[in-house]
Amino acid sequence: MGMEDHKLKVFCTVAEMKSFSKASEIIHLTQPAVSLQIQTLEETFETKLFDRSSNTVVLTPAGEILYKYAKDILSQYDAAERAVSGITGLVKGSMTIGASTTIGNYLLPRVIAEFRKVHPKIKIHLLVGNTKRITELLKGGVIDLGLVEGSVTKYKLTTEKLIADELALIVPANHHWLKLGEVSILELLKVPFVFREEGSGTRQVIEHYLSEHGIYPQDMTCSAILGSTEAIKDAVENGIGVAIVSRWAVRKELTHNTLKALKFKECEMLREFSLLFNRNAVSTYSVDTFYNYLKGFPLHKLLENAL
User: Fold this and answer.
1) Where does 166-270 sit in CATH, by number?
2) Residues 6+ apart with CB under 8 A from 169
3) Where do the domains of the chain lie?
4) Does domain 1-89 have CATH number 1.10.10.10?
5) What is the pTM of this model?
6) What is the three-class DSSP state of 264?
7) pLDDT tens digit sequence for 143-188
């Protein structure tokens, strides 16, 4: 991508995020660098492209026109790169993937590492955020592909199932329930429980599942509410309570026997990991390549630590 194309990409990102600071996070540039790119564009066109007077950054009428053309130019650029790569067989380029927490922290790093061995010329940026944030970034055209957990039907995006994720009950390695093998969900009313914060996709799935069995958070003894899965695992290891997390998140701990996972008698607690696409976006050669790689990747083996 040449200098001018890069400036246009920066310009489009600021327009989509309505913020210089958010744009700088996404394109991995400092805020002054982002401002400088916009300033040079404004000097080239001899007009203001953004109205900065309110607390959000809004396109001026001139900015609106440039934005429309910039999107066309960038998608033409992608199409050209794709056509040429198709002939030379050399896959290069860059792409940005957005993933919700469990997928971004526990599933994708290994997949990306293996992918890079096969396609060293493709640069991948990974942004991790909650499901709502990932859908916003995808709609704004900031990421090429989203991977999220839980239901996303309400976001008007193209979705495709990737793999089912099992949520497991985790307990310390010496817990008295281990003798039982399986535990009734009603046992959760008798022990301290560690929750994720409100708004987490994992927490929503857990609450939904518990409520189907007539259990609500207010009936339980909550020993802690923590903002990350890592913090929850530490808390359980240290005997602060039991918790429910994705099996993906405890792969290491189960292998090293620092935590144990138990099944519920009643039924499995499952949710889907889904791939999200923006219907209007032009797919690039590198995105297609990664998509096909991910679809063919033996994720089950990775989960069973057989890879």
Assistant:
1) 3.40.190.10
2) 183, 242, 243, 244, 261, 262, 263, 264
3) 1-89, 166-270
4) yes
5) 0.65
6) strand
7) 888 998 866 666 677 778 888 888 989 999 888 888 887 888 888 8
